[in-house]
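Incident log entry.

Two folding requests arrived from the same account within the same minute. Monitoring flagged them as a possible duplicate submission, but the sequences differ. Recording both here for audit purposes.

Request one:
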Amino acid sequence: MFTYDAYIYCNSSEPQGITLYMDSCVAAGYTGRDQESVQTHIDELKIMGVPTPYATPALYWISPVRLTNADTVLVVGEQTSPEVEFFLAKDKEGTLYVTVASDHTDRELEAVSVGKAKQICDKVLGDIFWKVDDVAEHWDQIEIHSQVFQNGEWIAYQAGTLGQILHYTELLKLMAEDSPAGKQPSLLSGTIPIIGGETIFTSACKISMRDPVLKREIVKSYQVTSIPDRS
């Protein structure tokens, strides 16, 4: 069983430490509730040579060791980019927690194998988690955003709400029905469309999750360091 140490914020002045438990991780894809939006994302990826997915939604099972809250990730080559989404995992008692995440992905390898492209890059998580029970009643209103650093400034890259992504209960059900690896997987939800539709490769990313009801926000920035692709 893989463990991940994190902090939760439960409307107290100080975050509390928790340990999350998982034996695998699912990086879901094409999970938009609006099928037109899903097709938009498929079309974005087709431009880069990514094949049509085997199913929509698609479940790509990866190792949980790819999960990190590091401020810098190392990638091979120059063609990687972020995907903002939500991340879910449970503690030992089965309580479910959520944070913002970036399913950072190798776009060059994605044209060969989406599953391998998901596995090769670290997945960056927010430094703070919230209890799902605290946000369940207004889940669809929670906002997620990503920005990329380009030409010396931060550029808006993605913006939307969790209401654009399949509800977490539906995704958990799909995971349980699929389940080729592990009995307690964590979940990367799948992303929302890129503003303007153009994939941007960048040296830095910023992801955020904002709760407009409880008026709180999780923000995570990370650097992307490219190392040579040598044969």
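Request two (distinct sequence, not a duplicate):
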Amino acid sequence: MENWKGVIQVLSFEEKRAIFHSFKLKEKKISNGRVSFVYPESHQKGQVLATQLHPSGNGYVNGKYMSAEIIEKYGYEVDPRGWISIKVFSKDEIAKVITEAMRSMAVVPSEEPFEKNEKEISQQTDEPVEEQGITGRKVEKSLETQRMETIEKIQPSTYEIYPGSCLFTWLGLTLSTMEYGFLVWRKAVRKYAGIGSK
């Protein structure tokens, strides 16, 4: 924000805090009088939306999950750690960067392997493969066939980690141990007590 002399006027710590409090954010105190703001409804790995907000004017908003288009559109400078410095931001700029950070954190992360697989499948379907030895003949696999092949590849590993299999293994070991114990006990009783011996 510039005053009438053209000098940038930095918002005070309390003014910045007031802007953050106008959103659904939780304040957390950290060391040396600094505070962070947490976005509890975040679907991303982290919930910290803003950090190191300090009476000196420093403060950073999370830009890790913002799209390249948004960063370019508003001219945000994102540091290597993924944070945007708001030291010289105006009230409107701070409100806008908070809104964009909340939007980016509210997005449910997609499962990248599935997306990549879908892209590969669509590319393979769009671009027919030529079989060796047959020139000019194009062989295409349907999307459904490729999906079934993918499912078949996934299924064996799914069964290996099925939690119920642990229960059956444990029960089997327990019963085996009990049966072995009974056989040892019966042999000892017959040997030392003379039961069953002729």
